[in-house]
Amino acid sequence: MTGGRIRARIRRSQLHTFACLKPRSNETDEPHTVEGPGYSRIVHCNESHMHQKPPLQYRSNYISTTRYSIISFVPKAFFEQFRRVANIYFLVAAICSLFPVSPFKPVSMIAPMAFVLGVSMLKEGLEDWRRFMQDMKVNSRKASMHITDGIFSNKHWKNIRVGDVVKVEKDKFFPADLLLLSSSYEDGLCYVETMNLDGETNLKVKRSLESTLCLDSEECFKDFKGLIKCEDPNPSLYTFVGNLEYERQIYPLEPAHILLRDSKLRNTAYVYGVVIFTGHDTKVMQNSMEAPSKRSSIEKKMDYIIYLLLAALMVISLISSLGFFILTKYKMPEWWYLRPDQAETCYDPENAFASGMCHAMAALMLYGYLIPISLYVSIEMVKFLQAIFINQDIDMYDEETGVTADARTSNLNEELGQVDTILSDKTGTLTCNQMDFLKCSIAGIAYGVQASEVELAAAKQMALDLQDNSMEDAADYPVPEIELKTVVTCKDKEGNKPCIKGFSFEDSRLMEGNWMKESHAEEILLFFRILSLCHTAVPEYNEQTGKLTYEAESPDEGTFLIAAREFGFEFVKRTQSSIFVNEKYPDAAKPIQREYKILNLLDFTSKRKRMSVILRDEEGQIFVLCKGADSIIFERLAKHGRVHEENTTRHLSEFGDNGLRTLALAYKKLEEKDYVAWDNEFIKAKTAIGGDREGMLEKVSDMMEKDFILVGATAVEDRLQRGVAQCIDKLAQAGLKIWVLTGDKVETAINIGFACSLLRQEMKQIFISSTITDPSGKDEKKTSLLLVPEKAVKESIINQMTNATQMIKLAKDPHAAFALIIDGKTLTYALEDDMKFQFLGLAVECASVICCRVSPKQKGLVTRLVKEGTKRTTLAIGDGANDVGMIQEADIGVGISGVEGMQAVMASDFSIAQFRFLESLLIVHGHWCYKRIAQMICYFIYKNIAFGLTFFYFEAATAFSGQTIYYDWYMILFNVFLTSMPVIALGVFEQDVSSDICLQFPALYQQGPQNLFFNWYRILGWMANGVQASLTIFFCNVLSFYASAFSSNGRSPDKAVMGTTMFTCIIWVVNCQIALTMTQFTWIQYIFIWGSIGSWYLFLVAYGMLSPTWSEEVYMLYVEVLAPSKSFWATTLLVTITCNIPYFFHSSMMRCFYPMDHHVIQEIKYYKKDMEDKHLWTREQSKARQSVKTGFSVRVESKIRQLKGRVKRRASSLAIMGSMIGRTEPAAAAAVDDLL
Known about the structure:
The protein has 1236 residues and is of the alpha+beta class. The chain contains 41 helices and 33 strands. The strands form 6 sheets. It has a 9-stranded mixed β-sheet with strand order 14-33-32-31-15-27-30-29-28, with helices on both faces. Strand 21 and strand 22 (592-602) form a beta hairpin.
């Protein structure tokens, strides 16, 4: 591999980049102290058999993310089922049905309960089986492991043990936590990508001990032996303490020597390592938590509804028992036909209290139909079917990877519609880590005509505003040409991928060597050379494309090198001391390779915010080339180096307003004697031993990085994952708050915030820091946390949060928006009990929250704080193992099923291929599922109350005899078959609006977080509807048959006729009620509703034709008695209409006088007003957006306000000028055109 050979000659550990901050460990270093609690692990290298028995037996490398095991499934599943209060009641009732006091046959109670529990447990088992299969995919990955005598063989990850020697090849994941022994590079370096651990995509450099560099082939491990004593398993990703005993020497081990599980080997052919931690002992698994059992807020609220229904059941049972006690004691002796002298215990007037207690038990079972036993199983079935539709949604299918959405658990479908806060990872979730070089400023002149997304959207909106005459003051004046011209240029290419990845720059003045014709060609030359020379990247030859690719520490560096190559300055080679660039200068047709000697490299850090390289060109001239944040560069400019500062500052502001991330470029020339003097000081600082070494290096670097001459600035567009900005904008319009939790550095996170419009230029950024700085803000020197008492640091953080909160409260500008930015060190203090709620209060007041440099554990703690502190539903989304903690902690966990491992997906409740699909998952499916489940539960409560209370009324009318008016099979069929299918259709197919309308009117989503369809007002309303329906059904039937014959032959109705007629009325009433509830009808709904009604009549006919031995009182009841009776049909029609009139009237009143958003939209769509009146439709869309301060739309509106203000100011200036010099109106108009 050519690229590998190039890098193999570079001992990068000798460069300042890799050596200046920490000296390299060697044989003379003192070993660590690894004794005492927390340091008991002993690893016998290449002797894994030593760890198969206690006391050195450690956990295997097998991992599991399942909730159940074969042994624990039954007890755990039963525990989960009986967490539901209703199931406990039905269990007691089923046991009681075995005793003689039961009014029902045992089968009528036991069969439904067994069916409900069986279906629910089967569903849980199937979902956990899917998790098990995904675990098996990971555990079955293969790695090359030393077997014996220098022979390596592929083994499954799950079979790797502590002490094994493993060989990992390029682009493979590390199967366990390893000690790096050697690599394909001669100095033992390797490059590791830790995106799965900390979210960072820039490559980390790991190194082996010099004493193990010789172990660079398989044969070398034939006799390899060693002993590692180190820390016990812990979740800290950035620390490691241990010693290696090898060849009678002890060597200290550091984090730089450790390769962590789930990180990936990059740009290195292979490495050898010995296993230290396996399975759940690895640091990545230590950062994960046990898969929690989650319940939706609606399901939790259902418990309270069941409590209420149980209380109602107890009350009416008490009333019934009291009535039975009184009648038994005082009236039963008079009822001679009941033979009270031979009465049993349950009907003994001489022991009325015992009889009352027996009746109480019977009543608790008799009125049990108030509790909807089939509710849970129906919800389980509905959620399962909803999950299938989520999985098959074509709008959430990623064509590039072929990955669909996956509802890994269906328990939380409705919770998707109630999310208040989204906590998102950055890398791999929001970004695809791809930059595009778009614009630049050189010598005070802006270059680049390609428009950014913000520019394009703002100009489009301005054009629409002009067409609609919405710009009142600027209606007579044209829009600035630069914006419209840019839109036209880019509009034709919208949706087309740039021909060169990372380079979308368009400007003929700089391309094809035309820059040499510019008046300031020398400064342009310096600009291009800074791009091609000021970096730490390594070139690699791509055999497939025949071109060089660049492995850079950050995406920005790679983009700058691509841009430099396209401008004619191609970086081709790096050695230990030189950089080689092919320059198309002075002849654009004949590139010349030039060598630049690297003298020193001052690397970029989040504290320095700049990077410098000192090099010597072929003519012997020494240059210092620097790139960094504009605020840092500008304050280091020489007086004669500020010629272009004003114009460059203006360009930087414009670039930032357009959503681009910027860096300033500067340089200076050095005399030989000045460099030699500085280099001596630098060497002294670099070789210093002591705690102040870093400060000395920073001071010496400051001496060099000053008196620069400004060259220009770059503007790159951070390529988010496709559709991320639009998705975040839509989520913001839906009223959702978005927090970004990332392990990346502050600057990168802020840039991503700007790119996805969580941040914008005029937004006030609140930085909460644990570093104590000079209050004046002018002194850059910062005091180390080690030198400041912890109490002082905490007081400083509290003061910062207090001041920030006060500033937000005093803000008067209605457009004012605040963003909170905090790092991991500060978050450690902010999450402590004494200040975490103050931090949360401040964060809630801010429009955006970005937490940087956070550990996986901190992600989980922040998520828990938001969930418990706000009492609102939280959703966490991420793609790496470092996101598992927050995914499991949140109410809903969403995993991105990308290419970087499956840890996040395995721990998630839902998985999607890209962040943009979150829009459909929440705003469409979340909205639908919430309303469906809410309406479904309310309807269940209604129909069970309407049915169950008729038992009580009949009891009251029959002296609380404990008899039922309905035949046993009627009661069994009511919930299981006759009313179950329509409610399932409601839960699966109901749509108040279509998916397109959901996305066009995102504020509809707020019906879920505001809980408009499952609040106590609506629940109690449905209960009241059930009570009135039960009263109407019972008393209408009683009054219909009380004083009149039932049939033409004068026959009066008996209990069977009365019960069957009443039950027929119930079937009609509840099925017509669900028809009124539905807003969308398909053939499925028609079949289920009419099928349920028709199946009741078919049952009466078919069951009535059976032998009287089986059919009993129902024998030929329908054919011979009910069907011929006009009273039967009239009563059914009358009761059905009467019961549903109150709901119909209430719904009509609400739609007419208190319409909700979806009511208005439904009416507009029904009358096709959206087609006839576009302005009405657009106006309703604008109303259906939450008032937010983040998102792409807000950023565009801010841009439009700037443009409008600019037009107004220019128009006012021209008007004043015209009045002063007496111009005519046409002349003034012409002047306006010229100026704009």
